[in-house]
Write a structure and sequence with these properties.
- The structure holds two protein chains of two kinds.
- Chain A is mainly alpha-helical.
- Chain A has one domain.
- Chain A has seven helices and two strands, in the order E-E-H-H-H-H-H-H-H.
- In chain A, strands 1-2 form a two-stranded antiparallel ribbon.
- In chain A, strand 1 and strand 2 form a beta hairpin.
- Chain A is globular.
- By secondary structure, chain B is an all-alpha fold.
- Chain B has three helices and no strands.
- The chains are: A mainly alpha, B mainly alpha.
- Chains A and B meet through helix 1, helix 2, helix 4, helix 5 and helix 6 of A and helix 1 and helix 2 of B.
């Protein structure tokens, strides 16, 4: 482990001690394996991902496994969350009849993303799993495959491509341009942006929190204590802000997924 | 700064290229969540939500039925009350009419009885008078005959004739008496 990768809290590195600011960076998203089985390194994000999975399943099991007509507290909270995604997102985009089939997937994605985001501000864990591109990429890939499958299933091979590329004879001369743009936009760029939007938000959020957390510790010397206070306040404010962003990003991720499915099912125009 | 660049160079992995182990773990984790939710827990809650919806709608229907019944009962009650009022009014009317009829009847009966009594009195008086007149007539006849016999000194033997004469005399008396009597009777009648 190089000095730059050392967590600021594990050192006595403070300002005026001849110690440079241990700025967070890409290395903050690299973890030494907790243990290795064969060639497989098991690290902290993986552990958090599995713990998050357990937490989601545990919560919904406790809330819904023995669901009652007159709900308990836990069931009521679960129902509120479930209803939020079902009515607020899926029914809004796809309608009740069409959307019902995709409710379980969208609910799963929403809570998976949200909890993986939430790790960012949970003490001790303090790392958003979704800031490792692999996790959002996996989810985006599932949505992308579903979108492709539905498009070709609904419109056939030619109709499917027409739907994807926005093919419309009335466009006339600009038709080829539209087709090329739509093809790149929908087939190549969209799954990438879908994953990166979530990844980058969580990545940046984590960097911000690290910056002010490390800053608070680093400034804790001499006159720097005053600035450490300001940095600490920023840490608190940004933690609250991140709490908000985490939910928003989960919402946006599912909203986009619903829109893609809706686009696949829509008649091409 | 140098160290940082060195580190960056060492770990030149692009953060946008997904590492395969994490990708696999992520997909497995999501699959676990999805299977639990889609296969067991969400169908579970959907069933319960449906049951609840039915229970609420059933409750509402029941409430509506109860309300309708209550309305019906109220209407029946009001109708009965109105009937009872009409009946009472009718009975009162009838009783009044009956009372009036009874009074009228009683009055008529009283009138009749009074007239009967008066008539009976009149008849009695008339009978008495007649009897008195009869007696008087006989007495007067006898006295007059006696008197005449004494005066004439002989008995008037022809009874028939005697009686006829006496009767004629008495009738004349009667006529006179009744003529004078009419005036006085009219006076008394007032």
């Amino acid at each position: 482990m190089s000095p730059d990768q050392t967590l600021a809290f594990e050192t006595n590195c403070h300002i005026f001690d001849g110690c440079g600011f241990p700025a967070p960076g890409l290395h903050s998203f690299k973890f030494e394996p907790l243990f290795s089985v064969g060639g497989f390194d098991f690290n902290k994000p993986m552990l958090l991902a599995l713990l998050g999975t357990v937490a989601i399943v545990w919560f919904f099991w406790a809330a819904f496994a023995r669901a009652k007509v007159v709900p308990g507290k836990l069931q009521m909270i679960g129902e509120a969350g479930y209803d939020f995604v079902r009515r607020g997102l899926v029914y809004e985009a796809l309608g009740k009849k069409e959307g019902e089939k995709y409710v379980p997937l969208m609910v799963s994605i929403f809570f998976f993303v949200w909890i993986m985001n939430l790790w960012s501000i949970i003490p001790v864990a303090q790392f958003p799993v979704t800031s490792i591109i692999a996790f959002p990429a996996g989810l985006a890939a599932i949505v992308y495959i579903l979108w492709m499958y539905l498009t070709f299933k609904k419109h056939g091979f030619v109709g499917g491509w027409k739907n994807i590329t926005g093919y419309d004879k009335e466009l006339g001369a600009i038709l080829p341009m539209i087709v090329v743009i739509e093809f790149f936009s929908n087939v190549i760029i969209r799954p990438f942006t879908h994953a990166v939007r979530l990844f980058a938000n969580m990545f940046a959020g984590h960097l911000l929190l690290l910056m002010f957390t490390i800053g608070t510790w680093y400034l804790l010397n001499g006159i720097g204590i005053v600035y450490a206070g300001a940095s600490f306040v920023m840490t608190i404010l940004l933690t609250a802000f991140e709490l908000f962003i985490q939910a928003v990003q989960a919402y946006v991720f599912v909203l986009l997924a619903c829109n893609y499915v809706q686009g696949a099912l829509a008649e091409h125009h | 700064m140098n160290a940082l660049v060195q580190v960056a160079a060492e770990e030149s992995e692009n953060p946008l290229i997904p590492p395969i182990p994490e990708l696999v773990i992520g997909l497995i984790a999501f699959a676990i969540v999805f299977i639990f939710l889609a296969k067991k827990l969400l169908p579970n809650i959907n069933r319960v939500l449906e049951e609840r919806r039915e229970a609420i709608e059933g409750g509402m229907e029941k409430a509506e039925a109860t309300q309708a019944e209550a309305q019906q009962v109220l209407e029946d009650y009001r109708a009965q009350l109105a009937d009872a009022r009409h009946e009472a009014a009718r009975l009162r009317q009838e009783a009044q009419e009956q009372g009036a009829a009874l009074i009228a009847e009683m009055r008529a009966e009283g009138q009749r009885q009074r007239e009967e009594v008066i008539a009976a009195g009149h008849a009695q008086i008339e009978a008495d008078r007649k009897q008195a007149a009869q007696t008087l007539r006989q007495d007067v006849g006898r006295l007059a005959t006696d008197l005449a016999g004494r005066i004439v000194g002989e008995s008037l033997e022809d009874v028939a004739r005697q009686s006829r004469t006496i009767d004629r005399f008495l009738d004349e008396l009667d006529d006179k008496a009744s003529k004078s009597n009419d005036g006085s009777k009219a006076e008394a009648g007032r």
